[in-house]
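PT: before anyone asks, these are the final sequences, not the draft ones from last week. 554 residues across everything. Please model them as a single complex and drop the result in this thread when it's through.
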Amino acid sequence: MSHAAKPLDMGAFMMKRPRFRLWRSPSTLVFAGPAAFLLLAAFVFPIALVLSISVREPTPGIDNYAQLLNSPALQTIFLRTFRIAAITTILAAAGGYIVAFTMNLATSRKQAVLLACVLIPLWSSVLIRAFAWVTLLRGNGVVNQALMSLDFISAPLPLMRNEFGTIVGMVHVMLPIATLPIFAVMRTIDPRLMLAARSLGAREARAILSVFLPLSLPGLAAAAMLVFVSVLGFYITPAVLGGGSTVMVAEYIEVQISETLRWGLGTMMATVLLASALCMFALGALLPAFRQQYRL
Amino acid sequence: MLTRAFTVSSVVLVVFLVAPLLIILPVSLTDDRVLSLPQAGLSLQHYHRLMGSQAWLGAAAQSAVIGAVSATLASVLAFLAASAVWLNPGRTAKAISCLIVLPLIIPSIITALGLFRVYVTTGLLDTWIGIMLAHTILGLPYAFVLCLAGLANLPPALFQTARSLGAPPAVALILVVMPANMVALLSGWIFAFLNSWDELIVTIFVASRTIQTLPMLMWDGLQENLDPIIAAVAVLLLVLSTSLLLLIRLLQIHNQKS
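LR: through. Structure below.
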């Protein structure tokens, strides 16, 4: 699509490029300056400052980081965070692929309906969605009451305040985020390729698996990276649906800062979280479909 | 076969996405005093309580003001920055883009820590300016990405023509480029507003008593008791965010026609 052949722009070869245009470079600075200054002064600088506490308090040095190696409790927090993030990523990416696939084949009216069903949850508040799941999943919530009135179970199932509830809530938040980049990539795949595969004798499943899937993989990979980066620092959903039993890194940091006032430890965890998120982001940025989400 | 399996699974997934939001409506109409589905009949009592509650209405007003101011600031800054990137693509532009989308990438708990500590020393803690500043920063990436997407559809010659006709850069940008990019700018404003309207974690850290936003009040309600009034709030908020999305869609359709 974007690789359509362009006629050679002969003018570009003939014209000499002006070496310096006075209005060009100053305009970049003047126009982008305010936003860049605001971000550097009121975002990057405060974060750098607060993270530096991790090597300054309670004693200067890397003691806080050494704790990470020695403390099984801290390691459990990180392992749990990565495990929940990985499970959420796999479920959301798989679900997103399926929804995007259907959206891609649907008639424009059905496509609009599906898109609305993806976008409305995406832009409703995470807090409201966590609340919605609480009404469904708690001990005498809607799901348990329905199951009990149908005599499927005799006692309420523990559906929240555990990892199950956390993952359900997080997949709900992440499914729309995963769907959109996959759909964007699928739209660029020429539908005639599938027809060609079918006419050459491939069964439907074969055509999808060996023609469509490989072409849509960049979208799937971008979606997975996008979800993983977002899930690592998640706070609200695990705090509400995990109910203190499945503490992830972000909630743990909050407890260190607000309750036990261990700034050194809290900022050390924050630094490790930030480093992991940025590494994942850098990895994701190798994919054009990922960069497209941020217009980079 | 596989296509049909995907279609059936998609229906299941869409129900999974939408059903939890829909279930809030009957819960908000419950005749019971605790969070539950309606038992004997429907009742508007929780909406009545909501409309009579100073705390909830005050929080909604505060959230609206914070959202409107910070979305406006974010849109203006984002439009200028996006124009710079659009006019001069290159390494500097890449660096600026990376910088501006950072708030999307950095987990909000880390932003919250950074701003909290700096606000304590600068006296911005629990002030309107402090919270609006924080929300402007958090809204910037949304407005920026949408402006860039909108500008990508415009020919850069638009700006250069205005320049060659004698308009100074700022005039060319405001009188020529901005009207042509209005839909993206408005969509960016709406997304920045919604982001501020829903923001919780950073707000919890930088606000405490003077300022109580709507999400802060919902958060307290979720932690303490599950009052069905939250369901009524949630329904109204869902109606709001859905209408704003619809508005963006209508703007886009209008734009495509003209």
